[in-house]
Amino acid sequence: MAADPAQPTVVVVGSTMIDLVAYTSRIPRSGETLVGDSFLMGFGGKGANQAVMARLFGANVVMVNCLGEDAYGDMTIENFASYGIDTTTLCRVPGASGVATIWVEPDGSNRIIIMPGANHRLTGEYAARSVRHSGNPSVVVGQLEIPQETTAAAFAAGREIEAVTVLNPAPAAELSGELLELSDWLIPNEVEFEMLTGTSAYSDEALMAFARETGTRLAVTMGEQGVALVSPQADAITRVPAPQVDAVDTTGAGDAFVGAFVVGMALGLGERQAAQLGNVCASDSVTRPGTQSSFPSPSECQAFLADVRRRSRQG
Ligand code: RIB
């Protein structure tokens, strides 16, 4: 599909998974077998989810990823194509595609174990070449479900073409100095922030200290508490509240935030407005089960965008 010149281009260099989701009244104890409530198989992976969310807003989205030569890989390519995501930068390798096993409890909270499979076979050379050939992207987005050196190579290529680089450091891991240096934005959730820094995301001083030390802009997502925005130069935090909803499944909410936030910025919204857009998509997504299947529709996305713009004009 040809890119729409009226829309920004977002390149996601990241993961794909097949999500195997068990909804359960509680988590089993060691050695215990439980009968679950229901099961859902769907498309996931933090990178893929963020790519889909961005595409639901109409952005041109290029997905850079490595899939196994298995049925899950075929299904994943079809899924991206169904959204109109550019799949020409997906590579295939012998072996298994990524899989995530997910347990969701009645309050919507989740526990996830990923088996990265082919995701870990994406090389820096391939990723950097894909970014350079992706047109004129506004933003390059990465996560930590592929090797950090691959994301670093992609971000270096993104910087060469003046794209903004956005890292969602999930799942939490110690960041290489190189990747940190190449990231313009970090978007951890509060747990990831605490694991990265050893300090609480609810402390303004801790947030400002981390932004100052790393020289990156920060958007720390805090579930129903919304998001905290921090810049390295700021002496205050901007907190953007989230709409309050009844959660049934929080899986992928952080990805909905990231996808909507980067599109918002690429469309010229201010940081606060982009965060409002991210919050409303994330909150909306937790009211439905599944990951990508829980995301708002294209028409809902346009309504959310119009509402954020209207509120911005009203001050
Ligand atoms: O952020 C949610 C995602 O994490 C799931 O889709 C799962 O695949 C894991 O990557």
From the structure above, extract its key features.
alpha/beta, nine-stranded mixed beta sheet, 10 helices, 21% strand, binds alpha-D-ribofuranose
In short:
The chain is of the alpha/beta class. Helix content is 37%, strand content 21%.
The largest beta-sheet arranges its strands as 5-4-1-8-9-10-11-12-13
Strand element count: 13
Number of helices: 10
Helix content: 25-40%
Structural class: alpha/beta
Rg (CA only): 18 Å
Global geometry: globular
Bound molecules: alpha-D-ribofuranose
**What's the N-to-C terminus distance?**
38 Å
Topology as H/E string? EEEHEHEEEHEHEHEHHEEEHHH
Q: Taking all residues together, what is the mean pLDDT?
A: 96
Largest sheet: 9 strands, mixed
Spans where pLDDT lies below 50 across 5 or more residues: none
Reconstruct the topology from this structure.
Blueprint: E1 9-13, E2 17-23, E3 38-44, H1 46-56, E4 60-68, H2 71-83, E5 90-93, E6 99-104, E7 110-115, H3 124-132, E8 139-142, H4 148-160, E9 164-167, H5 177-182, E10 185-186, H6 190-197, H7 204-214, E11 217-221, E12 227-230, E13 238-240, H8 253-266, H9 271-285, H10 298-313
Parallel strand pairs: 1-4, 1-8, 2-6, 4-5, 8-9, 9-10, 10-11
Antiparallel strand pairs: 2-3, 6-7, 11-12, 12-13
Residues 15, 17, 19, 44-46, 49, 100, 112, 114, 145, 251-252, 254-255, 291 line the site of alpha-D-ribofuranose (RIB).
